[in-house]
Request: fold
Amino acid sequence: MKNETISPATLLQKLRGTNPPLLLDVRNNSDFQSWHIPGSENMTASDLEQKMSQLDKDREIVTICARGVSSKGSAELLSKNGYQTKVLEGGLKGWNTVYEIVEIKPVTLSYLEVFQVKRLGKGCLSYMVVLVDKKHAIVIDPSQHLIKYTDYLNEHNIKIVAVIDTHIHADHISAGRLLAEQESATYLLPKKSAVSFPFQSLEDSLRGIVGVETQIIETPGHTNESVCIVLDKSFLFTSDTLFVESVGRSDLGQEVAHNAKILFHSVIDEIFKFDDKLVVLPAHNQKTMLPGEGAYSAMLGDIKKKNDINKFNTDDEFASFIKEHPSPTPPNYSKIKEINKSGERSDNDLDELELGGNRCSVSL
Ligand SMILES: [Fe+2]
Reply:
């Protein structure tokens, strides 16, 4: 029997609708615990025979595995037993190609239009900033599927003039260099970026391109070259340094305690000195996202009060905690970083390299 499949894009629409299907993740429990679509149920293929009677026969079921292969057997078994079942094409690897675009409203007056591009499975957040003339845009921290940005902007007759990476990413393949090349735009990186290709520095060039007040804040710790960016006294792009509930990890290189202290000071001394009314826009959500949840952002004033970094009184306390509570490393992070540093994608299966959840923040 041939299984019916559902594409990630169609599943996205259905999850936003009034009768969302049941997501049945058939991977083993430890894989499920480390990464899954929120709201999924976990029932391994071997458990299914015994447990399927617990499932609702009137509700559509989508079976999910890592790559859309092993879940076919489960779907077949369910279909034979009268359940309406489809297989998620490409599994979670396919789900990682799904993006959602949400407009961000500033708290203070700004003529910039900012859109958060949410990569739901991976938890990556990037941004399209439409400039005051409404005809040009910059893209910040784009994920590898460039078409998600170009389709949207082309449809609105907006030309990309610059593409920015706030640091050299280790969790996802950046589209930055390629997108800039394809659109004849300027590729901007922090001046301290150790990459093997020429680039223009954000510090020297961004202000002239965006035409509004711009501040580049050096915020090392997550990586040495990391920066955060304030645009038009309204939007604060906090990269992987500051998230809504927590902060970025500083433990992927050597000198974990030293880097943790640096990150602590970047947040407390550099970012927290800015105005409470700035809208904070991080480069990641802290977990996998569901469609239709809106933007992942908060006002800086709220973050100053509620962020978990407040649990620590000193950089020493913070550094000790980070050293004693190592987080799992992101899958393939060395290889991904190497690709981003070289700017060469070569023949790598990028979706395969990126398979796995978001491990960019620390749980404090
Ligand atoms: Fe990062």
